[in-house]
Amino acid sequence: MSSTPRPLDRRPVYEQVADELLELILSGQLPPGSVLPPERELSERFGVGRTTIREALRALQTKGLVVATGPTSPLCVVAADKLATDPLRDTFVYLLRLGRVPLDDLIGLRAALEGAGALQAATRDRRPDLTAARDQIAFMRAAGRDLKAFDVADIRFHLEIVRASGNEALTLVMLAVRDSLSKALLSRLEALTDPSSMLQRLIAEHEAILQAVIDGDGEAAQHLTREHLRRYYSMPSP
Amino acid sequence: MSSTPRPLDRRPVYEQVADELLELILSGQLPPGSVLPPERELSERFGVGRTTIREALRALQTKGLVVATGPTSPLCVVAADKLATDPLRDTFVYLLRLGRVPLDDLIGLRAALEGAGALQAATRDRRPDLTAARDQIAFMRAAGRDLKAFDVADIRFHLEIVRASGNEALTLVMLAVRDSLSKALLSRLEALTDPSSMLQRLIAEHEAILQAVIDGDGEAAQHLTREHLRRYYSMPSP
DNA sequence: GCTGGCCAGCTGGTCTGACTAACTCAGCCA
DNA sequence: TGGCTGAGTTAGTCAGACCAGCTGGCCAGC
């Protein structure tokens, strides 16, 4: 009776289909930006029902590898530059909300990432372009009491510093962690009754960080960044 | 005719169902480890077809929030401590294979994470327990020419150092990055014809890192870790 | 009384066929 | 020429059905 020994392909079919499609995407046979065949065609091609195809596609969609372009148009493979900070951020949110990691650890992770980014930016061979970061400090000054505008410039400044490290992976993870934190913490600044002195201090800290990076003092850049973030996230009651 | 203004719930129903289930999980109304109701019951309760329920569950499953316990048993909410290194690692794999981030950036990210972990481990208030890390160095020595055994101890050593930082988030991300790298790179050690001298050097580097952490010299611990990893990943041709 | 096997019912996995709503585009009409 | 119409295609959704594996209870045989 062992004519078909069934070498343990006990995994559900939709998983196998998802894996095959995944490999087609990762191997480039379904290049980024290309449109996937319609569900019914995939259904025929794989010899499985449309339900199964849909569940496989849903998995790929959740992973951020394929995206819907319109209500009734076929899915398409995500363009490489549009790919996936969302799943990263979501994972951090889940880890936080399910109590797998404490909030302080996420803050520490952001401090570690940005500290390392500043260090790398300050010490890399090719001097990074920091005009964008400098501009953000000017925006912070110009913001005056406009906390919203200040916050935008703040966010942008930190992004530019990490970006100056030239490490795309560092940048992406930092963004994901920051987003997950901002989902957990309401903006600290808005809790302050008289934010102006705090804003002055934040501007000064940003300036110090930028200067350290410009001076190529990686150690200082890292340390200032870490301390700056730690203070920021423990703000109203330092 | 505007009796039902349809306030723009244009998102597909399975997404809305997934969001509701997600919120039930994150809010603790479906606590970790609890069993989800059967698909047919969810179908009735939400007033949607079973197809829709299944697609929503598939999304949650892909995010790693619910897991199948058996071939025919209902899904259950993942236990907090089992949650999600996989989606994290997968994301890095996709970023890498789709060319969104270069390999060197991922290596740099791991160096940044582990460097920061070593720094934190060396400078935290409460002295960390490093006996496990020390043991791993002994195992490396005992491994002799057994590259497999050496590698296991190597992996474990790095894990213990980051774990000594006390930052769970740092540890999780580091593990995910490392796994994604090991999927991209075959073990460097196996490419060497005469690995013994290299192994000696690696052991010495591990010892130096451990010593720096024990000495509380965060800066040295960080620097040694970063350089160690950079060398390791560019190994056969330094 | 206990054990073994049988059976019914529940579950997820899968398929089929059908319908709806929205998009696309060719072709028609003004 | 330019706008409109209608057919075709598509994802989204549903209902119903069947299978395979597991669970629990029941019953016959020891």
Oligomer: homodimer
Largest sheet report of chain A? 2 strands, antiparallel
Q: Point out poorly predicted stretches of chain A.
A: 1-8
The largest contact between protein chains, plus residue counts on each side, is:
A-B, 52 and 51 residues
Describe the global form of chain A.
elongated
Report strand order across the widest sheet of chain A: 1-2
Helix content of chain A: 55-70%
Overall pLDDT metric of chain A? 88
Please report which band the strand proportion of chain A falls in: under 5%, 5-15%, 15-25%, 25-35%, 35-45% or over 45%.
under 5%
Helices and strands of chain A: which structural class?
Answer: mainly alpha
Helix-strand string of chain A: HHHEEHHHHHHH
Report, as a whole number of angstroms, the end-to-end distance of chain A: 74 Å
Q: Give me the count of strands of chain A.
A: 2
What can you tell me about this protein's structure?
Two copies of one chain form a homodimer. Chain A is mainly α and 238 residues long. Chain A has ten helices and two strands; from the N terminus they run αααββααααααα. The longest helix of chain A is centred in the middle third of the chain and has 21 residues, at 103-123. Chain A starts with 12 loop residues before the first helix and ends in a 5-residue tail after the last helix. At the A-B interface, helix 1, helix 3, helix 4, helix 5 and helix 8 of A face helix 1, helix 3, helix 4, helix 5 and helix 8 of B. Chain A binds a DNA duplex (30 and 30 nucleotides) through residues 12-14, 38-40, 48-52, 54-55, 68, 70-75.
